Amino acid sequence: SREEAILLGFDLTGGKWSGFIRKALEMAPQKKIAVHCWRGGMRSGSMAWALNLYGFEVYQVEGGYKSYRRWALKQFEDKCELCILGGMTGSGKTKILHQLKSLGKQIIDLEDLAQHQGSSYGTLGTLIQPTQEQFENNLALALSALDKNQTIWVEDESLTIGKRSVPNPFWHQMRKAPVINIKVPLIERIRNLVVEYGKLDKEFLIESTQRISKRLGPEQTRDAITAIRENRMEDFIRLVLVYYDKTYQSGLTKRNKENVFSLELENTDIVAKAGKVLDFADTFLALVKHSAE
Questions:
Q1: How high is the pLDDT of residue 11?
Q2: What is the spatial distance between Cα 33 and Cα 50, in angstroms, rounded to a whole number?
Q3: Is-catalytic flag, 80?
Q4: Which of 21, 24, 35, 37 is an active site residue?
Q5: 149-183: pLDDT as tens digits
Q6: Digit-coded pLDDT (tens) for 173-231
Q7: What are the φ and ψ backbone dihedral angles of 15, each rounded to 5 degrees?
Q8: What's the pLDDT score for residue 25?
Q9: pLDDT score at 239
Q10: 147: exposed, middle or buried (C-beta count within 10 Å: 0-12, 13-18, 19+)?
Q11: 146 exposed, middle or buried (CB, 10 Å; 0-12, 13-18, 19+)?
Q12: DSSP secondary structure string, the chain?
């Protein structure tokens, strides 16, 4: 009840006062913090008053966390002008995505939000994924900061990124959006992946390879693990790419062919590649919008 909430609020800011203040200082040493209840505001209002008195800059979530979650889930329902940056593993999609951002374009980096690179090796042996709910909240916040009527670039991903799932409404928008499928020579992709994965702990690479052994097949798995142990990273990458390339091609064939546009990218620097992607996109996005009208 309202009265019980008030009493509890005063209890929180009474005997437990110093403990909550110290904890708040640990979490927000700059003394800027947001507080919320589950759905109301009485208890968080009491805490906001107490923290404010101490000198914090306090924000209170109106309607509580339940209201915030409704807002977060709505972000995935809102129509976005997505453009998907596709390409096989090792094509440099993430680097191009961030180069587009540096050129002033809007991007969503799902792998960064999920703290996972998307493959069996995706944690890189160090990354810790957020909870599913936190991943969704982070994605909602990132989307809310963008103009959804302007192009938003997103890297092509599976429904799951590690153990996290892309929210279904947003995933369906991704699957219907136009795709630039960048094509990079195999040798360049192998080089890129050797730089990224070759320095990782060998036991981590072996364990990750064993996780996909059923899909790789016994012979490929054995050869890949031997290559890791013998530090033949190019051979290891070449072997596992056979599986990942097939998987990516399979996913691409499930898309509407009229929405897939292939672009050959030669071994040039990342700035030039991003420029080519934008020039290419300007042409086909106009065609897509025209045909939709």
A1: 59
A2: 12
A3: no
A4: 37
A5: 999 999 999 999 999 999 999 999 999 999 999 99
A6: 999 999 999 999 999 999 999 999 989 999 999 999 999 999 999 999 999 999 999 99
A7: -60, -30
A8: 87
A9: 96
A10: exposed
A11: middle
A12: -HHHHHHHHHHHTTTTHHHHHHHHHHH-TTSEEEE--SS--HHHHHHHHHHHHHT-EEEE-TTHHHHHHHHHHHHHHS--EEEEEEE-TTS-HHHHHHHHHHTT-EEE-HHHHHTS-SSTTTTTTT--PPPHHHHHHHHHHHHHTS-TTSEEEEE---SEETTEE--HHHHHHHHHS-EEEEE--HHHHHHHHHHHHTTS-HHHHHHHHHHTHHHH-HHHHHHHHHHHHTT-HHHHHHHHHHHHHHHHHHHHHTS-GGGEEEEE--S--HHHHHHHHHHHHHHHHHHHHHHH-
Please give the model's pTM, rounded to 2 decimal places: 0.86
Contact 162, 118 (CB under 8 A): yes
Spatial distance between the Cα atoms of 272 and 154, rounded to a whole number of angstroms: 19
Rounded CA-CA distance 212/146 in Å is 37
Structural domains of the chain, with CATH: 2-62 (no CATH), 79-292 (3.40.50.300)
Q: In the beta sheet, which residues pair with residue 182? A: 87, 263
Whole-angstrom distance, CA of residue 232 vs CA of residue 203 = 14
Instruction: Name residues of the chain where pLDDT drops below 70.
Output: 1-15, 17, 267, 286-293
State the CB neighbour count (10 A cutoff) for residue 267: 10
- The amino acid sitting at 94 is T
Q: Which structure tokens are listed for 218? A: 């016994």
Pair of tokens at residue 259: 């929405």
Starting at the edge strand found earlier in the chain, the sheet holding 106-108 runs: 106-108, 151-155, 81-87, 179-183, 260-264
Q: 154: closest CA among 66, 81, 206, 61? A: 81
**CA 80/CA 176 separation, integer angstroms:** 11
